[in-house]
Amino acid sequence: MNAAMEFGKPALHNAMWPGLVGKGPDSEPPIALETMLDLTAAAAVDGVKFDGVDLFLSLPHTDIDSSDDDLKALADGLARRGLVAGSLVAPVWAPTGGGSAMGSEEERKRFLTQVRKACAIGRRLREMGIRPYGVVRIDSATATAEWAGNPLENTKRIAQTFREACAAAEDQGERLAAEGEICWGGMHSWKRMVELLEMVNRPQTLGFQADMAHSLLYTMGYNAPEDRILPEGFDWSDQAVLMDSLRTLTDALRPWTIDFHVAQNDGTVRGSGSHDKTGRHCPANDPNGKMDIVKVAGLWMRGADGKPTQAYRHICWDGCMFPNATMLAQRTWNDVLATLAAVRSAHGWN
After folding, report:
1. Phi, psi at 233, each rounded to 5°
2. DSSP state of 256
3. Are 191 and 222 spatial neighbours (Cβ–Cβ below 8 Å)?
4. Which of 10, 76, 200, 218 has the smallest count of CB within 10 Å of its CB?
């Protein structure tokens, strides 16, 4: 039996939003959802295929105001390619119709409206039989500089908005996952992320979406030097120190983690288009990548007892802000699929 086929779970997904994030008028053109789906469906490594995709609910991919006919067409397109839908990204930011979770009442209203719409889409896709699992992803949709003006009160306000978002999710039978990134106020460090999750205190509905590329920067203290874990002047060749630092991070956030992105990072910050100053995702086999992807994934996927947590039914590759030439090469997605299969082979279950 091929090693990559040893375990059947978790399912392997590809993220569709790299076709949009960092693209736009001041960058490269967006890549159509149909193109991303075709590349995903065509990927194959030793008999392994992608099981599904995670979706961004914003044009020019999937309209947050999609009609039932629109969603039926989406579901048919996925089924035709042998794919299912998993986690969904709610477009909670001002440029996509949302607003800051710690902003004015009008901004908070727009944020919550987008969460409600995303959760309603999630429910409909479940009812259509094309979405067997997954969460709805959110963040604070506010800059760290704005949050820093009054950390305590602003975190309280974000927590209140998130609690209201939880109520909206529960109405549709959905769960929310907050993705920690250094660019989102109140979620920009691992300690602040834990603090926010505890303040919301709705673990049955709101969890953490771990992304390996973003969480690596948590250990480096970007935007929160007081919460740095890796020592200053760290030598990247010292993998033991890196793994110890990541273990501190994952021990704190793993209990909250309900959605997981496999990714790589070269230890730098970059952005493009409208998505600036965030984690630098790298291709799966990038020689500048700082992590042993399979080993680090194990820190997230296995509990303190060494056994798989089975906290989520699929894992997803996230590779934002690759050049379009890289994105449109089939080999890119074969390499990604091979990496995900290796992660499942090491840390999966039946």
Report:
1. 70, 25
2. G
3. no
4. 76
Tokens encoding 53: 């995709």
Residue 287 token pair: 């020689």
| pLDDT at position 103 | 98
- Averaged pLDDT for residues 313-337: 95
Q: Which two tokens stand for residue 209?
A: 């979406």
- How many whole angstroms separate alpha carbon 225 and alpha carbon 240? 21
Top CATH class, 3-347? alpha beta
For residue 305, the SS3 value is coil
Prediction pTM value: 0.95
Name the residue type at position 14: N
E-strand ranges in the chain read 11-15, 52-56, 84-89, 136-138, 176-179, 206-211, 257-262, 265-272, 275-281, 314-317
User: What is the Cα–Cα distance from 343 to 317, expressed in whole angstroms?
Assistant: 11
Q: With 60 as the cut, is the pLDDT of residue 276 above it?
A: no
**Structure token pair of residue 326:** 């890289």
pLDDT (0 to 100) of residue 321: 81
Distances (CA, A) of 52 to 15, 38, 63, 120, 222: 9, 12, 19, 20, 33
DSSP 8-state symbol, 60: T
Structure-token match 């929160």, residue found? 224
Q: What is the pLDDT of residue 277?
A: 60
Distance (Å, whole) CA 334 – CA 83: 16
Residues 107-117: pLDDT tens digits? Answer: 999 999 999 99
DSSP state of 35: H
> E strand or H helix at 34, and its extent?
helix 33-42
Which one-letter amino acid corresponds to residue 239? Q
The upper half-sphere exposure of residue 43, i.e. CA atoms within 13 Å in the direction of its Cβ, equals 30
What pLDDT score was predicted for residue 169?
Answer: 98
Helices in 54-208 by DSSP H: which ranges? 68-80, 105-127, 144-147, 151-171, 190-200
The CA–CA distances, whole Å, from 329 to 1, 30, 83, 272 equal 29, 15, 20, 20
How far is the C-alpha of 284 from the C-alpha of 182, rounded, in Å?
A: 21
